[in-house]
């Protein structure tokens, strides 16, 4: 049985916590896209952790954590991250790395930074983790696949070819130091040494695991609105954030994904540039930002303050639709307990007309939010275990949003910990 945990919005919806929680019943947890550019924050018995590359299942002794072929594999970052959790008392996780994953090279990170510098004020707000240059090279067929580390003849020829091509840009566009093919070869050899014990034919491993009836969890990074095809292009990431891509980025048949848990946060947050219709500003925003998440809405990778806003039914309905949602996990609801009234964005006004369908980017940029205000519940709902025990206004908020987005909210997260969860039969 395969389940996917994915995001409905811009990311930071609390997927890490939901994955960590569902990890208990999973045998295998697979990262299928993205790289070290975004992070998941997880709070469990070992403490509080920010993971960027490792799947959120690494804290359980019984799970195998897999870096799938769809991931932008940053080898040194992966091993730093393993060390950082082991140093804090977490048992050494069982890790497998797909032989078809490609590697983020140091020049990808440099190109990311150089391009942001070149674009100046028009930059995309990249985290400079090399993700866009990495995926560009993957699809331009000039990336380095893990399997290629074991073909020395190919590698020696390829480093010269790649350096030659990259150096044209470095010299003439960016005016930066050039790549030395010998150094590049050494970098690859250091990655080989680190990764060799973990390399695996992952699609075959998962094929056999499925035959044995194992439980597999696919863990997405970011959310629907960051998908390169269906998101707010070009303010998107460079690999698909949709559950459907989980099949490709892990190497399993699409029909094996039986449950798609789309994580929606009870209000909105976004990092980086781009349209954000229900965004709020000033003191109102500062208060939500500081109370948000677990210790404030600040990026897990960058520490940047996140932009915040009210729940956006238009974006979330679309985000859930593009994921193929079977279940919604509604998170961080406890944070809203301070508000007398809670505005919810129920429509977009674009050129004088109101729509509830999420538009393409140039129309989205013109959209003005249509808000409906619901009464708050003014209590701390942390610790509540049963749906019926939630205050009535809180249940009304959940049920109103469920109706607007049109997908069943079956899990409600009312705190950052594993046990802060309310299940609801729909
Ligand atoms: P992800 O990238 O989707 O995994 O999300 P992040 O980890 O970046 O952001 C979620 C933040 O909210 C983290 O700090 C979590 O510990 C925290 N969090 C998750 N669920 C809840 C919740 O139900 N309540 C509160 N207060 N915090 C939560």
TrEMBL record:
Residues reported in the UniProt entry to bind GTP: 11-17, 39-41, 306, 332-334, 413-415
Entry's localization field: Cytoplasm
Gene Ontology molecular function, alphabetical: adenylosuccinate synthase activity; GTP binding; magnesium ion binding
Chain positions recorded as Mg(2+) binding sites: 12, 39
Assembly notes: Homodimer.
List of residues binding substrate: 300-306
Entry annotated with the keyword Nucleotide-binding: yes
Residue sites binding IMP per the record: 12-15, 37-40, 127, 141, 237, 304
Organism: Mediterraneibacter catenae
Protein's name in the database: Adenylosuccinate synthetase
Alphabetical list of InterPro entries matching this protein: Adenylosuccinate_synth_dom1, Adenylosuccinate_synth_dom2, Adenylosuccinate_synth_dom3, Adenylosuccinate_synthetase, P-loop_NTPase
Cofactor, free-text remark: Binds 1 Mg(2+) ion per subunit.
Pfam families linked to this entry: Adenylsucc_synt (PF00709)
Alphabetized CDD domains for the sequence: AdSS (cd03108)
Main location: cytoplasm
GO CC terms, sorted: cytoplasm
Annotated active site: 12 (proton acceptor), 40 (proton donor)
The enzyme's E.C. designation: 6.3.4.4
């Amino acid at each position: 049985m395969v389940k996917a945990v994915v995001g409905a919005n811009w990311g930071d919806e609390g997927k890490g916590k939901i994955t960590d929680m569902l990890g208990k019943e999973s045998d295998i947890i697979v990262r299928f896209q993205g790289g070290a550019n975004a992070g998941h924050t997880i709070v469990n018995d070992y403490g509080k952790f920010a993971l960027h590359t490792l799947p959120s299942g690494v804290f359980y002794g019984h799970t195998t954590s897999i870096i799938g072929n769809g991931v932008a594999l940053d080898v040194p970052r992966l091993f730093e991250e393993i060390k950082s959790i082991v140093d804090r008392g977490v048992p050494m996780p069982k890790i497998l790395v797909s032989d078809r994953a490609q590697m983020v090279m140091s020049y990808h990170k440099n190109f990311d930074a150089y391009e942001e510098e070149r674009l100046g004020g028009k930059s995309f707000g990249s985290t400079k983790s090399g993700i866009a240059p990495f995926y560009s090279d993957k699809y331009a067929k000039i990336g380095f696949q893990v399997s290629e580390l074991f073909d020395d003849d190919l590698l020696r020829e390829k480093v010269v070819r790649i350096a030659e091509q990259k150096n044209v840009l470095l010299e003439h566009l960016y005016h930066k130091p050039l790549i030395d093919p010998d150094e590049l070869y050494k970098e690859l050899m250091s990655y080989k040494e680190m990764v060799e014990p973990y390399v695996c034919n992952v699609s075959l491993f998962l094929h056999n695991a499925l035959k044995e009836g194992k439980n597999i969890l696919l863990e997405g990074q970011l959310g629907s609105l960051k998908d390169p095809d269906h998101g707010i292009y070009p303010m998107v990431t460079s690999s698909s954030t949709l559950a459907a891509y989980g099949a490709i980025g892990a190497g399993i048949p699409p029909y094996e994904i039986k449950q798609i848990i789309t994580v929606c946060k009870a209000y909105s947050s976004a990092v980086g540039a781009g349209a954000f219709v229900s965004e709020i500003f000033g003191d109102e925003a500062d208060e939500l930002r500081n109370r948000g998440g677990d210790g404030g809405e600040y990026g897990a990778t960058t520490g940047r303050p996140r932009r915040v806003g009210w729940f956006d039914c238009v974006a979330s309905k679309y985000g859930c639709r593009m994921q193929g949602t079977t279940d919604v996990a509604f998170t961080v609801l406890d944070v809203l307990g301070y508000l007398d009234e809670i505005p919810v964005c129920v429509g977009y006004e674009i050129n004088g007309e109101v729509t509830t369908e999420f538009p393409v980017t140039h129309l989205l940029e013109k959209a003005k939010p249509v808000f409906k205000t619901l009464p708050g519940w003014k209590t701390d709902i942390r610790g509540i275990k049963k749906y019926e025990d939630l205050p009535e206004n809180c249940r009304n908020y959940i049920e109103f949003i469920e109706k607007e987005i049109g997908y069943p909210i079956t899990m409600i997260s009312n705190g950052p910990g594993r046990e802060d969860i309310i299940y609801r039969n729909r």
